[in-house]
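Students often ask why inverse folding is considered easier than folding. One informal answer: many sequences map to the same fold, so there is more than one right answer. In these notes we will look at a single instance of the problem. The structure comes first.
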Protein backbone atom coordinates (compact mmCIF):
# COMPACT_ATOMS: atom_id res chain seq x y z
CA UNK A 1 0.00 0.00 0.00
CA UNK A 2 1.20 3.50 -0.76
CA UNK A 3 1.47 5.60 2.33
CA UNK A 4 0.34 9.21 2.22
CA UNK A 5 3.95 10.37 2.28
CA UNK A 6 4.82 8.14 -0.63
CA UNK A 7 1.81 9.31 -2.67
CA UNK A 8 3.01 12.87 -2.19
CA UNK A 9 6.49 11.86 -3.30
CA UNK A 10 5.03 9.98 -6.24
CA UNK A 11 3.14 13.09 -7.42
CA UNK A 12 6.19 15.29 -6.98
CA UNK A 13 8.28 12.91 -9.06
CA UNK A 14 5.74 12.73 -11.88
CA UNK A 15 6.04 16.47 -12.21
CA UNK A 16 9.74 16.09 -12.94
CA UNK A 17 11.29 14.90 -16.15
CA UNK A 18 10.91 11.51 -17.86
CA UNK A 19 14.33 10.55 -16.42
CA UNK A 20 12.71 10.34 -13.00
CA UNK A 21 10.46 7.44 -14.06
CA UNK A 22 12.73 4.58 -12.96
CA UNK A 23 12.75 6.13 -9.50
CA UNK A 24 8.98 6.11 -9.44
CA UNK A 25 9.04 2.41 -10.23
CA UNK A 26 11.52 1.84 -7.42
CA UNK A 27 9.31 3.65 -4.92
CA UNK A 28 6.31 1.54 -5.92
CA UNK A 29 8.26 -1.70 -5.58
CA UNK A 30 9.46 -0.74 -2.10
CA UNK A 31 5.96 0.07 -0.91
CA UNK A 32 4.59 -3.15 -2.37
CA UNK A 33 7.18 -5.05 -0.32
CA UNK A 34 5.82 -3.56 2.88
CA UNK A 35 2.62 -5.58 2.46
CA UNK A 36 4.45 -8.80 1.77
CA UNK A 37 4.80 -11.70 4.13
CA UNK A 38 6.29 -15.08 4.94
CA UNK A 39 4.38 -17.87 6.65
CA UNK A 40 6.20 -20.29 8.91
CA UNK A 41 4.96 -23.56 10.30
CA UNK A 42 7.26 -24.11 13.23
CA UNK A 43 7.95 -27.15 15.33
CA UNK A 44 10.38 -24.92 17.18
CA UNK A 45 8.72 -23.05 20.01
CA UNK A 46 7.69 -19.64 18.74
CA UNK A 47 9.25 -17.67 21.61
CA UNK A 48 12.68 -19.03 20.69
CA UNK A 49 12.61 -17.52 17.21
CA UNK A 50 10.48 -14.38 17.73
CA UNK A 51 13.40 -11.99 18.36
CA UNK A 52 15.08 -12.99 15.08
CA UNK A 53 11.83 -12.74 13.13
CA UNK A 54 11.18 -9.28 14.54
CA UNK A 55 14.67 -8.20 13.51
CA UNK A 56 13.93 -9.49 9.99
CA UNK A 57 10.67 -7.54 9.76
CA UNK A 58 12.37 -4.41 11.11
CA UNK A 59 15.02 -4.69 8.44
CA UNK A 60 12.89 -5.66 5.43
CA UNK A 61 9.32 -4.64 6.20
CA UNK A 62 8.27 -8.21 5.39
CA UNK A 63 5.71 -9.54 7.86
CA UNK A 64 6.32 -12.99 9.34
CA UNK A 65 3.42 -15.15 10.55
CA UNK A 66 4.15 -18.21 12.67
CA UNK A 67 2.01 -21.23 13.40
CA UNK A 68 3.60 -23.29 16.16
CA UNK A 69 2.83 -26.91 16.94
CA UNK A 70 5.06 -29.53 18.50
CA UNK A 71 3.56 -32.27 16.35
CA UNK A 72 1.50 -32.73 13.21
CA UNK A 73 2.79 -29.88 11.05
CA UNK A 74 4.29 -32.11 8.36
CA UNK A 75 0.97 -33.96 8.07
CA UNK A 76 -0.79 -30.62 7.90
CA UNK A 77 1.46 -29.40 5.08
CA UNK A 78 0.87 -32.71 3.32
CA UNK A 79 -2.91 -32.49 3.69
CA UNK A 80 -3.04 -28.86 2.60
CA UNK A 81 -1.20 -29.80 -0.59
CA UNK A 82 -0.98 -27.00 -3.14
CA UNK A 83 -3.16 -24.77 -0.94
CA UNK A 84 -0.79 -24.73 2.00
CA UNK A 85 0.06 -21.37 3.50
CA UNK A 86 3.39 -22.66 4.75
CA UNK A 87 6.41 -21.15 3.04
CA UNK A 88 8.94 -22.41 5.55
CA UNK A 89 9.00 -25.28 8.01
CA UNK A 90 11.30 -24.85 11.00
CA UNK A 91 12.32 -27.76 13.20
CA UNK A 92 14.49 -28.36 16.25
CA UNK A 93 16.10 -31.51 14.85
CA UNK A 94 17.24 -33.31 11.72
CA UNK A 95 14.53 -35.99 12.20
CA UNK A 96 11.53 -33.96 11.06
CA UNK A 97 13.67 -32.41 8.31
CA UNK A 98 14.44 -35.84 6.99
CA UNK A 99 10.74 -36.79 7.14
CA UNK A 100 9.45 -33.74 5.27
CA UNK A 101 12.13 -33.97 2.57
CA UNK A 102 11.41 -37.69 2.08
CA UNK A 103 7.73 -36.91 1.60
CA UNK A 104 8.64 -34.65 -1.32
CA UNK A 105 7.13 -31.58 0.35
CA UNK A 106 10.19 -29.34 0.00
CA UNK A 107 12.10 -27.64 -2.80
CA UNK A 108 15.77 -26.93 -3.34
CA UNK A 109 17.15 -23.47 -2.63
CA UNK A 110 20.14 -22.41 -4.64
CA UNK A 111 21.58 -19.57 -2.58
CA UNK A 112 25.21 -18.47 -2.48
CA UNK A 113 24.43 -16.70 0.82
CA UNK A 114 23.27 -19.93 2.50
CA UNK A 115 26.19 -21.79 1.01
CA UNK A 116 28.62 -19.27 2.45
CA UNK A 117 27.00 -19.01 5.88
CA UNK A 118 26.36 -22.71 6.54
CA UNK A 119 29.21 -25.25 6.58
CA UNK A 120 28.54 -28.17 4.23
CA UNK A 121 28.03 -30.82 6.96
CA UNK A 122 25.07 -28.80 8.26
CA UNK A 123 23.11 -28.57 5.01
CA UNK A 124 21.73 -30.94 2.43
CA UNK A 125 24.03 -31.80 -0.50
CA UNK A 126 20.87 -31.40 -2.64
CA UNK A 127 19.94 -28.03 -1.07
CA UNK A 128 16.59 -29.27 0.30
CA UNK A 129 17.36 -28.39 3.95
CA UNK A 130 19.62 -26.06 5.89
CA UNK A 131 20.85 -26.12 9.48
CA UNK A 132 20.56 -22.79 11.30
CA UNK A 133 22.04 -23.66 14.68
CA UNK A 134 23.95 -26.54 16.17
CA UNK A 135 23.99 -28.08 19.60
CA UNK A 136 25.93 -30.90 21.12
CA UNK A 137 24.40 -33.89 22.85
CA UNK A 138 26.63 -33.85 25.90
CA UNK A 139 27.00 -35.85 29.10
CA UNK A 140 25.99 -34.02 32.27
CA UNK A 141 27.98 -35.42 35.21
CA UNK A 142 27.43 -35.01 38.93
CA UNK A 143 29.87 -32.51 40.46
CA UNK A 144 29.73 -34.43 43.74
CA UNK A 145 30.00 -38.01 42.54
CA UNK A 146 31.91 -38.02 39.22
CA UNK A 147 35.57 -37.05 39.07
CA UNK A 148 37.04 -35.25 36.10
CA UNK A 149 38.22 -37.71 33.46
CA UNK A 150 36.17 -40.59 34.89
CA UNK A 151 33.98 -40.60 31.82
CA UNK A 152 35.18 -39.38 28.46
CA UNK A 153 33.10 -40.85 25.64
CA UNK A 154 29.63 -41.97 24.57
CA UNK A 155 31.13 -45.46 24.46
CA UNK A 156 31.94 -45.15 28.19
CA UNK A 157 28.21 -44.93 28.96
CA UNK A 158 28.07 -48.68 28.27
CA UNK A 159 30.92 -49.49 30.69
CA UNK A 160 29.57 -51.71 33.55
CA UNK A 161 31.28 -49.31 35.96
CA UNK A 162 28.24 -47.01 35.45
CA UNK A 163 25.67 -49.68 36.32
CA UNK A 164 22.55 -48.04 37.76
CA UNK A 165 24.01 -44.56 37.27
CA UNK A 166 22.87 -43.40 33.80
CA UNK A 167 19.77 -41.30 33.07
CA UNK A 168 18.25 -40.40 29.72
CA UNK A 169 14.95 -39.57 28.08
CA UNK A 170 13.32 -42.10 25.73
CA UNK A 171 15.60 -43.82 23.26
CA UNK A 172 12.97 -43.08 20.62
CA UNK A 173 13.21 -39.33 21.10
CA UNK A 174 14.54 -37.64 17.99
CA UNK A 175 17.68 -36.35 19.79
CA UNK A 176 18.60 -39.86 20.88
CA UNK A 177 17.80 -41.39 17.50
CA UNK A 178 20.32 -39.00 15.94
CA UNK A 179 22.94 -39.94 18.53
CA UNK A 180 22.34 -43.66 17.95
CA UNK A 181 22.41 -42.96 14.19
CA UNK A 182 25.87 -41.42 14.65
CA UNK A 183 26.99 -44.48 16.64
CA UNK A 184 25.83 -46.73 13.78
CA UNK A 185 27.65 -44.57 11.24
CA UNK A 186 30.83 -44.69 13.35
CA UNK A 187 30.89 -48.31 14.55
CA UNK A 188 28.47 -50.24 12.33
CA UNK A 189 25.12 -51.67 13.34
CA UNK A 190 26.32 -54.70 15.33
CA UNK A 191 28.68 -52.65 17.54
CA UNK A 192 26.09 -49.94 18.01
CA UNK A 193 23.60 -52.55 19.17
CA UNK A 194 26.04 -53.88 21.78
CA UNK A 195 26.64 -50.34 22.95
CA UNK A 196 22.96 -49.61 23.25
CA UNK A 197 22.42 -52.80 25.24
CA UNK A 198 25.26 -51.76 27.54
CA UNK A 199 23.76 -48.31 28.10
CA UNK A 200 20.37 -49.86 28.80
CA UNK A 201 21.95 -52.19 31.36
CA UNK A 202 23.40 -49.13 33.13
CA UNK A 203 20.17 -47.12 33.34
CA UNK A 204 19.21 -45.87 36.80
CA UNK A 205 15.53 -45.87 35.80
CA UNK A 206 13.26 -46.43 32.84
CA UNK A 207 13.84 -43.67 30.25
CA UNK A 208 11.45 -40.79 30.95
CA UNK A 209 11.05 -37.02 30.98
CA UNK A 210 12.87 -34.44 28.90
CA UNK A 211 16.55 -33.48 28.90
CA UNK A 212 16.23 -31.09 31.83
CA UNK A 213 14.54 -33.81 33.91
CA UNK A 214 17.73 -35.86 33.63
CA UNK A 215 19.84 -33.05 35.10
CA UNK A 216 17.28 -32.73 37.90
CA UNK A 217 17.69 -36.47 38.52
CA UNK A 218 21.47 -36.01 38.83
CA UNK A 219 20.92 -33.21 41.33
CA UNK A 220 18.57 -35.46 43.32
CA UNK A 221 21.01 -38.37 43.36
CA UNK A 222 18.91 -40.64 41.12
CA UNK A 223 21.85 -40.99 38.71
CA UNK A 224 25.40 -39.70 38.23
CA UNK A 225 25.63 -39.17 34.47
CA UNK A 226 22.93 -38.07 32.02
CA UNK A 227 22.53 -37.33 28.34
CA UNK A 228 21.21 -33.91 27.35
CA UNK A 229 21.55 -31.17 24.76
CA UNK A 230 24.06 -28.43 25.51
CA UNK A 231 21.76 -25.38 25.30
CA UNK A 232 19.55 -26.64 28.13
CA UNK A 233 22.40 -25.79 30.50
CA UNK A 234 22.15 -22.12 29.51
CA UNK A 235 18.36 -22.25 29.74
CA UNK A 236 18.51 -23.74 33.26
CA UNK A 237 21.31 -21.64 34.75
CA UNK A 238 19.50 -18.42 33.70
CA UNK A 239 15.98 -19.56 34.58
CA UNK A 240 14.58 -16.73 36.72
CA UNK A 241 11.02 -18.04 36.34
CA UNK A 242 11.89 -21.50 37.64
CA UNK A 243 14.88 -20.84 39.91
CA UNK A 244 15.02 -24.49 41.05
CA UNK A 245 16.52 -25.20 37.61
CA UNK A 246 19.51 -23.00 38.48
CA UNK A 247 20.23 -25.48 41.27
CA UNK A 248 19.95 -28.41 38.88
CA UNK A 249 22.45 -26.79 36.52
CA UNK A 250 24.80 -25.94 39.37
CA UNK A 251 24.95 -29.60 40.39
CA UNK A 252 26.57 -30.79 37.15
CA UNK A 253 29.69 -30.50 35.06
CA UNK A 254 29.42 -30.48 31.27
CA UNK A 255 31.29 -33.18 29.45
CA UNK A 256 31.81 -32.89 25.71
CA UNK A 257 32.42 -36.51 24.76
CA UNK A 258 35.07 -38.05 22.50
CA UNK A 259 37.46 -35.11 22.54
CA UNK A 260 40.42 -37.41 21.89
CA UNK A 261 38.87 -38.91 18.77
CA UNK A 262 35.91 -37.94 16.56
CA UNK A 263 34.48 -35.17 18.75
CA UNK A 264 31.09 -34.54 20.35
CA UNK A 265 27.91 -35.47 18.48
CA UNK A 266 26.20 -32.42 16.98
CA UNK A 267 22.56 -31.87 16.17
CA UNK A 268 20.95 -29.02 14.28
CA UNK A 269 17.82 -26.95 14.18
CA UNK A 270 16.95 -26.22 10.61
CA UNK A 271 14.68 -24.93 7.91
CA UNK A 272 13.18 -26.08 4.60
CA UNK A 273 11.34 -24.21 1.85
CA UNK A 274 8.02 -25.93 1.13
CA UNK A 275 7.25 -27.22 -2.33
CA UNK A 276 4.14 -25.07 -2.69
CA UNK A 277 5.47 -21.86 -1.11
CA UNK A 278 3.53 -18.80 -2.29
CA UNK A 279 6.08 -16.27 -1.03
CA UNK A 280 9.21 -17.94 -2.24
CA UNK A 281 11.42 -14.85 -2.68
CA UNK A 282 10.60 -13.51 0.75
CA UNK A 283 10.99 -16.95 2.30
CA UNK A 284 14.49 -17.28 0.86
CA UNK A 285 15.29 -13.78 2.11
CA UNK A 286 14.28 -14.92 5.59
CA UNK A 287 16.33 -18.12 5.35
CA UNK A 288 19.34 -16.04 4.37
CA UNK A 289 18.68 -13.57 7.17
CA UNK A 290 18.49 -16.38 9.76
CA UNK A 291 21.88 -17.64 8.61
CA UNK A 292 23.35 -14.11 8.66
CA UNK A 293 25.46 -12.34 11.27
CA UNK A 294 22.72 -10.67 13.31
CA UNK A 295 20.35 -13.64 13.66
CA UNK A 296 23.24 -16.02 14.29
CA UNK A 297 24.49 -13.77 17.08
CA UNK A 298 21.00 -13.68 18.61
CA UNK A 299 20.62 -17.46 18.45
CA UNK A 300 23.83 -17.82 20.43
CA UNK A 301 23.17 -15.12 23.04
CA UNK A 302 19.47 -15.76 23.64
CA UNK A 303 19.06 -19.49 23.02
CA UNK A 304 22.54 -20.74 23.98
CA UNK A 305 22.78 -22.61 20.70
CA UNK A 306 25.95 -22.70 18.64
CA UNK A 307 25.85 -20.53 15.53
CA UNK A 308 26.43 -22.38 12.25
CA UNK A 309 27.96 -19.33 10.65
CA UNK A 310 31.74 -19.36 11.04
CA UNK A 311 33.09 -16.40 12.98
CA UNK A 312 29.91 -15.70 14.98
CA UNK A 313 30.77 -15.20 18.67
CA UNK A 314 29.47 -17.88 21.03
CA UNK A 315 27.32 -17.06 24.04
CA UNK A 316 29.41 -15.06 26.49
CA UNK A 317 27.62 -16.73 29.40
CA UNK A 318 28.28 -20.24 28.12
CA UNK A 319 31.92 -19.40 27.57
CA UNK A 320 32.35 -19.46 31.36
CA UNK A 321 31.14 -23.07 31.50
CA UNK A 322 32.17 -24.56 28.21
CA UNK A 323 35.33 -23.60 26.45
CA UNK A 324 36.19 -24.65 22.95
CA UNK A 325 35.46 -28.26 22.18
CA UNK A 326 35.91 -30.62 19.31
CA UNK A 327 32.72 -31.26 17.35
CA UNK A 328 32.18 -34.43 15.35
CA UNK A 329 32.19 -33.27 11.72
CA UNK A 330 30.01 -36.16 10.56
CA UNK A 331 27.46 -34.79 8.11
CA UNK A 332 23.90 -34.56 9.34
CA UNK A 333 22.85 -36.23 6.10
CA UNK A 334 24.79 -39.35 7.18
CA UNK A 335 23.22 -39.25 10.63
CA UNK A 336 19.74 -38.81 9.15
CA UNK A 337 20.30 -41.76 6.82
CA UNK A 338 20.89 -44.01 9.86
CA UNK A 339 17.88 -42.91 11.88
CA UNK A 340 15.46 -45.62 10.86
CA UNK A 341 18.09 -48.27 11.68
CA UNK A 342 18.58 -46.47 15.00
CA UNK A 343 14.87 -46.62 15.72
CA UNK A 344 14.80 -50.37 15.03
CA UNK A 345 17.80 -50.93 17.33
CA UNK A 346 16.14 -49.02 20.15
CA UNK A 347 13.11 -51.31 19.82
CA UNK A 348 15.24 -54.43 19.43
CA UNK A 349 17.16 -53.94 22.67
CA UNK A 350 13.95 -52.83 24.43
CA UNK A 351 15.67 -49.63 25.49
CA UNK A 352 12.53 -47.95 26.82
CA UNK A 353 11.02 -51.00 28.53
FE1 LIG B 1 15.40 -29.16 22.68
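Output (designed amino acids):
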Amino acid sequence: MLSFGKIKRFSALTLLSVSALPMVAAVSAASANAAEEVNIYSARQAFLIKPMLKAFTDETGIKVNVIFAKKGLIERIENEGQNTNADLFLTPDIGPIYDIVNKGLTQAVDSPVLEKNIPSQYRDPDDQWFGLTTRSRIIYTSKERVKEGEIKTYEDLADPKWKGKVCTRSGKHTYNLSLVGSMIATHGEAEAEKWLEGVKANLARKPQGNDRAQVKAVKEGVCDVALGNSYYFGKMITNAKKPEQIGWAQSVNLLFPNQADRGAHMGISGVVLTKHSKNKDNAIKLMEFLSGPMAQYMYAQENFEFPVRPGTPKSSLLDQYMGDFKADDMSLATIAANRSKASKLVDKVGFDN
